[in-house]
Amino acid sequence: MSTAVAAPAPPDSRRWRALGAIAAGQFMIAVDATIMNISLPSAQRALHLPDSGAQWVITIFALCYGGLLLLGGRLSDLIGRRNCLLIGLAGFAAASILGGAAVNPAMLLLSRALQGVFGALFTPSALALLGTTFTTPAERGKAFGIYGTVMGSSSGIGLMLGGVLTDTLGWRWSMYVSVPIAVAAAAGIAHAVRPAPRQAGTRVDVTGAVLATSGFMALVFGLTRVSSDGWSAPLTIGSLVAGAALLALFVLLESRIAQPLLPLRVVLDRSRGGAYLAVLCMAVGNFAAFFFLTFFLQNVLELSPLVTGLAFLPYTAAIMIAVRLAKRLLEHAPVRLLLCSGLLSTALALALFGLLRLDSGYAFPLLPILVLLGTGNGWVLVTANSTATLDAGPDTAVAGATVMTSMQIGASLGIALLGTAAGTATAAFLGSHPGATGLAARATVHGYTVAGMAGAAFLCLAALTVFLVAGQKGSGGR
């Protein structure tokens, strides 16, 4: 009887081309999370969108994208990852065309919702394919370094593109620009990603999907209402309570069924759990900082959309440098060290908001803020994406999807919590300085400084928590 062990299958020769195509598709989706931020005022005027509905152009994308990521992860096991990638790109491109051709607010909002839906179908399969294709520590670090650069830099590039396209071609091109990227990415995936057999006996946990999606959406909806309605508003309270209750039922269900949407072992693993927590907390500070900086640059410093977009370029450059450093350490450095370094970098960026003044220059403190935010983003995302998908087996897609779900929750939480802190501090300043010169602008900047300091304290506490929770071994081999 032979005892020879079969040699491991050679790596796919098309894997690097597949990575390029997948990264291009994810770049398109991630850019659309911020590209409309600067284009929104122009779209609002063109479509006569009321102020109360303008925020939903941004929020509805986050709701549908974040709320459906876990379901998208399980659908990839059911219909195949390659199919999910191609369907996701085709649907996203069609939704972008619909948005660019919008003649009323309803068309624009519908297109943004559909972008979120099809983005949620694409992202889990993208992460799962990377996690299962690049298995050696050296290649894994390089692949997730490239992916992390794309993901991290997309927010800054989205803001820059939004400014450039709005000033040159008009706001509609902030939607149309996704179409050629989707076509190129789909062609690359069709060529480089080989069809894989579906997992036998896979079932979709429909009840869990409904509970997770509705719970997340209710939670995010409640958080988005805080800045306008306050924490005590019945709609805010009702949404937050409903979201918490639905998510609690989801956790209870997942612990009792044979094929859960999100197996609890995925999040109870210490390294993964620490990675998810780090991404959530990083997003709290990062997205709130972007929100404040966009308004500070345009409303306080009175920069044009184009110049505002270009002002975020150092953020992208910082991410690229941070990713190159982080990917070299993935094989050996403790997971918690990499994650905590990123969180502390973000904390320092928010602390520098305390130095903002009406006459603040770009070189200081704005440039250091952007560099520190980019550094923190790069370190956290590369480590988290690699750690989440490492040795996840049949749960790879949903483990990767949970990273992005954590980011969406963190983004909404950050804008709600720190936005409320800024609004409260602004109102208090207005009340204590009646009749002062330039009162409105001074009060706004004061609100940003208070919120920044509060966010810095929160992230320092988050870094300590992640240090205690996360595993100590490198994500290249736990």
UniProtKB/TrEMBL annotation:
GO cellular component, one term: plasma membrane
Keywords, ordered alphabetically: Cell membrane, Membrane, Transmembrane, Transmembrane helix, Transport
A molecular-function term among this protein's GO annotations: transmembrane transporter activity
SUPFAM superfamilies: MFS general substrate transporter (SSF103473)
Matching Gene3D superfamilies: MFS general substrate transporter like domains, Multidrug resistance protein D
Keyword Cell membrane belongs to the record: yes
Cellular localization per UniProt: Cell membrane
Transmembrane segments: 18-40, 52-72, 84-107, 113-132, 144-165, 171-192, 204-223, 235-253, 274-297, 303-323, 335-356, 362-382, 409-430, 450-470
Matches recorded under InterPro entries: MFS (IPR011701), MFS_dom (IPR020846), MFS_trans_sf (IPR036259), Sugar_transporter_CS (IPR005829)
Record's protein name: EmrB/QacA subfamily drug resistance transporter
Biological source species: Streptosporangium album
